[in-house]
């Protein structure tokens, strides 16, 4: 019987390592030998479940890629945040009537006390306690201010609206925003400049017997009480109001009178309004009173006043300081050392001499004061000077005592 020829299949040769694929190498390298595991050429036997757990697979950990800084995205996010905050702020200001879009855009600053002299106090509303008024105090709707005998205070509502109250005065701020300036003089005297910031702005002044709509003017008000003649109640005081128009025009009426009684009052005229009566026919303001009103309006401070002094003395018609002034200047230097604001030194003279001479004299005197304060270690950068000469008297220059009051130095807080 013939033997069958058995053809042997040729043994598969392993591929050289260099020709092997990456998958083959990774498969072989991923298996590590353990003490109880044997690996043969064809079969791999795993003896137990524990041995299976002992097989570890290698993983390659790739380093995290650093994210590139996106400048455009950062800028966009910042701009979006700023716009969001700005929009919210503008919306709030518009809703509270502190901002108005027009050309130019107007922003209502807070009403504040800029100057006090003597006994001045204020309170937040009619039921709050009175407290001593100080320069820089901010006032809001419902605030009340009062001055006692020989006392005065300046109040700034805006860049173009400022008033002065003095003597025994009780004054109330009803409303103060970009659209409306509404105030009441309960008693006493008030004078001010009431220039509108824009045409449709409403400025209204009230007293016990009058309501005045302001169209842009310089005004004076005086509220007093009197005993009426032939009254059914002879011992009951009644109020009366004097309204003075130094310049401009206003419309005034008595709201207690039923019938139409409004009156237009123009330049250099005044009227009297008694309780339950319509305004009297206008009369011309006497010249001496007109000058006094103008002096008072010139004296109203639209910026915060640190102090005003008449104790800094100079040689006649010169900018040379007298020795008697050193004590006052040293006191001022001490005040300035305790503060950090920039101060403007303003020089004023009386009306003796020409306007040009007085202007240059007030400038030199303000400069001399600055040099003295610099010698007392006050920084030159904090001290500005300005000269007004005789253009801003606060009392008539008709007596030696009044001229001495007008020869003054004012220290104004700039910032």
Report on the architecture of this protein.
With 415 residues, the protein is α+β, with helices and mostly antiparallel strands. The chain folds into three domains: 71-100; 109-296, Jelly Rolls, CATH 2.60.120.1440; 303-413, OmpA-like domain (60s Ribosomal Protein L30, Chain: A), CATH 3.30.1330.60. The chain is built from seven helices and 24 strands. It has helices at residues 22-29, 49-54, 71-95, 287-298, 326-337, 355-375, 400-406; strands at residues 38-39, 44-45, 99-100, 106-107, 111-117, 120-123, 131-132, 138-139, 144-147, 152-156, 161-176, 180-194, 202-207, 210-214, 217-226, 238-247, 250-253, 263-265, 269-274, 283-284, 305-309, 343-348, 383-389, 409-413. The strands form four sheets. The protein has a 16-stranded mixed β-sheet that branches. Strands 21-24-22-23 form a four-stranded mixed β-sheet, covered by helices on one side. The radius of gyration is 43 Å and the shape is globular.
């Amino acid at each position: 019987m013939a033997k069958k020829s058995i053809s042997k299949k040729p043994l598969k040769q392993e591929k050289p390592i260099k020709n092997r694929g990456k998958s083959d190498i990774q498969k072989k390298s991923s298996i590590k030998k353990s003490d109880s595991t044997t690996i043969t050429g064809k079969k791999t036997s795993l003896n137990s479940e524990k041995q299976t757990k002992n097989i570890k697979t290698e993983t390659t950990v790739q380093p995290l890629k650093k994210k590139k800084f996106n400048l455009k995205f950062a800028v966009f996010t910042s701009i979006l945040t700023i716009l969001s905050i700005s929009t919210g702020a503008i919306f709030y200001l518009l809703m509270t009537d502190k901002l108005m879009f027009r050309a130019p855009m107007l922003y209502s600053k807070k009403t504040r006390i800029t100057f006090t002299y003597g006994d001045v106090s204020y309170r937040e509303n009619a039921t709050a306690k009175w407290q001593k008024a100080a320069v820089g105090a901010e006032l809001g709707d419902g605030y009340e201010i009062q001055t006692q005998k020989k006392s005065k205070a300046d109040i700034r509502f805006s860049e173009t609206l400022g008033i002065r109250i003095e003597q025994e005065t009780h004054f109330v701020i009803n409303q103060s925003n970009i659209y409306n300036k509404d105030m009441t003089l309960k008693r006493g005297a008030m004078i001010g400049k009431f220039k509108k910031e824009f045409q449709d702005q409403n400025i209204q002044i009230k007293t016990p017997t009058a309501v005045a709509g302001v169209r842009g003017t310089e005004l004076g008000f005086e509220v007093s009480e009197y005993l009426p003649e032939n009254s059914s109640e002879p011992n009951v005081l009644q109020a009366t109001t004097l309204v003075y128009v130094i310049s401009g025009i206003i419309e005034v009426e008595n709201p207690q009178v039923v019938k139409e009684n409004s009156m237009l009052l123009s330049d250099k005229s005044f009227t009297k309004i008694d309780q339950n009566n319509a305004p009297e026919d206008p009369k011309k303001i006497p010249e001496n009173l007109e000058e006094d009103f103008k002096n008072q309006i010139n004296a109203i401070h639209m910026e915060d006043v640190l102090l005003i002094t008449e104790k800094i003395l100079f040689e006649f018609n010169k900018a040379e300081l007298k020795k008697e002034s050193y004590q006052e200047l040293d006191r001022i230097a001490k005040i300035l050392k305790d503060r950090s604001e920039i101060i403007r030194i303003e020089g004023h003279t009386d009306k003796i001499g020409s306007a040009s001479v007085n202007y240059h004299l007030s400038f030199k005197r303000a400069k001399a004061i600055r040099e003295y304060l610099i010698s007392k270690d006050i920084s030159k950068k904090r001290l500005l000077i300005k000269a007004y000469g005789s253009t801003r008297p606060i009392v008539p220059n008709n007596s030696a005592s009044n001229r001495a009051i007008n020869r003054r130095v004012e220290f104004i807080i700039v910032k």
